[in-house]
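Homework help board

Subject: predicted structure for assignment chain

Our instructor gave us this sequence and asked us to write out the predicted structure in token form, then describe one feature. I got the tokens but I'm not sure how to describe them. Can anyone check?
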Amino acid sequence: MASILKVDTITGVTTAGSISVTGEGNSTTTNLQQGLAKAWWSLNGTGTIAGRDSFNVSSFDDVSTGLYDANYTNAMANGNYAFQGTTGIASNTAYVFAYNSSAAPSTADVRFGCETSNNATLQDQSYVFGTISGDLA
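My token output:
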């Protein structure tokens, strides 16, 4: 028979902020907190930019054409987190979505941009999606 567990808070016994979960095959454990996305977003990056939906993102800045900042609600522990993202494709031109090296990732925000694949020109995009994985402060 299946079980249902209903709780509001899960806390580790040894360390309150660390929960280990047994992985596939029952031979390894995974730290639950390390495996969770710490921030994500769906952004309309054209015109007056606007977040469609997000988690742990307080606001977005329109830095310039095709260049944006996502500002975190809760800070990251450091700037050494992983950043993944994607955007759309139009008129047979792929758009590259990447961390923008003009501003190093910080504990408060990350700068990212959308470029055309054929000439690396920054360009606003209607659909811009991002995810942050790492440690919260």
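Reply (TA_rk): Your tokens look well-formed. For the description, you could write something like this. The chain has no helices and eleven strands. That's the kind of observation they're looking for.
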